Amino acid sequence: MNAARPDLIRKSSQPGGVTPNWTAYEALRKSFSWEQARRELGQPAGGGMNIAWAAVERHAQGTRADRTAFRFVDDAGTTTISYAQLSRESNRFANVLNTLGVARGDAVFLLAGRSQAMYVATLGTFKNGCVACPLFPAFGPEPLATRMKIGDARVLVTTQALYRRKVAPMRDSLPGLRQVLLTGCDRSLPMLPGTLDLDALMAQAATGFDIVATAEEDPALLHFTSGTTGTPKGAIHVHGAVVTHYATGKYALDLHDEDVFWCTADPGWVTGMSYGIIAPLLHGVTSVVDAGEFDAQRWYEILETQEVSVWYTAPTALRMLMRAGPALAREHAYPRLRFIASVGEPLNPEAVWWGQDVLGLPVHDNWWQTETGGIMIANTPAFDIKPGSMGRPLPGVDACIVRRDESGAVQVVEQVGEQGELALRRGWPSMLRGYLHNEERYQKCFAGELYLTGDLARRDEDGYFWFVGRSDDVIKCSGHLVGPFEIENALMEHPAVAEAGAIGKPDPTTGESIKAFVSLKPGFEPAESLRLELLGHARSRLGAAIAPKEIAFLSVLPRTRSGKIMRRLLKARELGLPEGDISTLEAGA
Ligand code: ATP
Ligand code: MG
Fold first, then answer.
1. What separation in Å is there between the alpha carbon of 548 and the centre of ligand 1?
2. Whose C-alpha lies nearest to ligand 1, atom 13?
3. How far is the CA of 469 from the centre of ligand 2 (A)?
4. For 351, which of 197, 207, 300, 454 is 20 to 30 Å away at the CA?
5. What is the pLDDT of residues 227-241, one digit of tens each?
6. Which residue's C-alpha comes closest to atom 28 of ligand 1?
7. Separation of 487 CA from ligand 2 center, angstroms?
């Protein structure tokens, strides 16, 4: 932590004029139950649960019918769709699936970017009782085909261009893929073999549909993990998960009726599904969907002109905005913005403070995983922020730190400040119900009633959790267990550093020695003098025992396409080891 900064941002210093949904931390944690959250959300008339019923149908039949559900922003301008229209369009899609004989439980893969078709098809898939499997469009043909094979893809919804470039070359290897539905087809050309014109089918389909009576435990979603630590795993989630999306939208993102919400994640990742589609719809708010890629100037324009009030983004995007400099941010005004949150990887304290300094609002870090289906630990309006901490467990979430004893048994660590594996007591509604075709790996996630996250953390005396690193990334140096995050934070405090990634290298005397890779902000060039300055800076911040012994400059750090620094790849490259599964590696890294 930078010596000049206080180590707390008081909740009373948060502006907004809106009373948060959660103000007293302990009181709500005590009174909350998942059962009560489910009652608050309601249930379809026949019982059970269906995500699309909760997200769309409830509103389409009620007072929010004409409210805008999504504003799709692209080069051509802004297109809006109301809750009532979204209901009718998703009904059409469910009818299209029915007509094609696609039945309950079948896997519908969705590869259509941040287009209206993607959102409509996802909701129609839920309505028809099928399992929605979103895919990230920047993947190449191989990783897309691999996921479709693992997920037993029965139907694929995509665009003509994506199909031609990315799916057609692999189609022969996907015999189970029976229908490919293309949106936005060029009608002057013949349809590609083995494809159907989705827009034409939609135009003929009826706008009424009786939602399939799914049970809470019926599978609804298949999400692939980011592949940061190895081969991506397919996590299965059920319709009942929607109760977590509802409660976390309320308490972690503080969604209020009049909000304009912007989740910058692509629906190909779990954040873009749970919080880019489901949670904001559950709360009946208007969401902004930006079809374009990251661009600092355009992002500030969106925040301003769309009058975004709640913004959910990621550390990598925040670091890119920081890199673009404060002057650009100050060319715009954000009077409606009242809450900013971030997820995906550790949020450096510098980024929390950047929000406070440049946008007038701190960034609220929160922690969760594809497997947890929703936010578990967060900084929220209900308590002060400790920059660098991922916050405190949400209502209904029981988190602890565990260790294995000599016999291999998992023990809960009661001692405050002790480092260990982060674990959650099972039973929250959006917990994964399996890894597809990998029961053994799934069983390894559990020790009795505890779900083991694979992340290392510690809890402080106020119940805040501090991320240390993934268990695979942690560095054992001179008898200390060092998390890369701590090293990276210290480097990020230096004005030249845009991003940092730290790894351990085998060392005969210290066990492992630390090497850090940094990329620089504009205006700084790699130079020996700067390298020495950074080594000195790190040593003064961290102490000689855990300061990096080596620092190297990289123009970009290797990242997953969901924006996470791939330390395992930095390490493999440094040590000349095989690179492993790099299907999610961002291009050019
Ligand atoms: P894989 O499991 O395939 O290796 P992944 O773990 O990166 O990939 P995700 O489920 O997308 O896949 O990411 C969850 C992980 O991201 C968490 O386990 C944690 O390591 C990291 N993470 C997410 N949010 C935070 C946060 N706020 N602070 C620290 N780490 C975070
Ligand atoms: Mg993981």
1. 24
2. 369
3. 12
4. 454
5. 877 778 999 999 999
6. 346
7. 21
Tell me the CATH number at 539.
3.30.300.30
74 and 164 in one domain? yes
Q: Same structural domain for residues 415 and 479? A: no
Distance from Cα 442 to the centre of ligand 1, integer Å: 17
Amino acid identity at 35: E
Kindly state whether residue 345 falls inside one of the protein's structural domains.
Answer: yes
518: CA distance to ligand 1 center in Å?
21
- CB of 366 closer than 6 angstroms to any ligand 1 atom: yes
335 and 415 belong to one structural domain: yes
Instruction: Name the phi and psi angles at 47, rounded to 5.
Output: 95, -170
Q: Which residues pair with 131 in a beta bridge?
A: 107
| DSSP H helices in 19-140 | 25-31, 34-41, 51-52, 58-60, 83-99, 116-127
Question: Which residues fall within 8 angstroms of residue 121, CB to CB, at 6 or more apart?
Answer: 90, 93, 108, 110, 112, 157, 181, 198
Low-confidence winner among 7-21, 22-36, 50-64 (lowest mean pLDDT): 7-21
pLDDT band at 532 (very low <50, low <70, confident <90, very high): very high
Cα(131) to centroid of ligand 2, in Å?
21
- The count of structural domains within the chain is 2
Domain boundary among 429, 459, 489: 459
Q: Say if 511 falls within a structural domain.
A: yes
**CB 372 less than 6 A from any atom of ligand 1:** no
Which value, to the nearest 10 degrees, does the dihedral of the CA atoms of residues 243, 245, 247, 251 take?
Answer: 170
Q: Is the CB of 469 under 6 A from ligand 1?
A: no
Are residues 486 and 527 both part of a single domain?
yes
Say if ligand 1 is within 6 A of residue 344 CB: yes
Q: What is the pTM for the complete model shown?
A: 0.93
Residue 77 contacts by C-beta under 8 Å, 6 or more apart in sequence? none
CA angle, residues 366, 10, 33, in degrees to nearest 5: 50
Residue with the smallest CA separation from ligand 1 atom 27 is: 367
User: What is the pLDDT at residue 1?
Assistant: 46
| Structural domain boundaries, residue 516 | 472-575
Is the C-beta atom of 230 inside 6 A of ligand 1?
A: yes
Instruction: Show the tokens assigned to 73.
Output: 């922003």
Specify whether 447 is located in the same domain as 493. Answer: no
Which residues crowd ion ligand 2, with CB under 5 Å?
225
Ligand 2 midpoint to CA 103 (Å)? 31
pLDDT tens per residue, range 416-425: 999 999 999 9
Residue with CA nearest ligand 1 atom 29: 346
pLDDT at residue 410 is higher than 80: yes
Residues 224, 278: one domain? Answer: yes
Would strands 480-482 and 475-477 be described as parallel, antiparallel, or unpaired?
A: antiparallel
Between 73-87, 201-215, 414-428, 561-575, the lowest mean confidence (pLDDT) is in 561-575
**Are 281 and 388 contained in the same domain?**
yes
Whether 259 and 280 map to the same domain: the answer is: yes
**Radius of gyration, CA atoms only, the chain:** 24
232 Cβ inside 6 Å of ligand 1: yes
Check whether 588 has a pLDDT greater than 70.
no
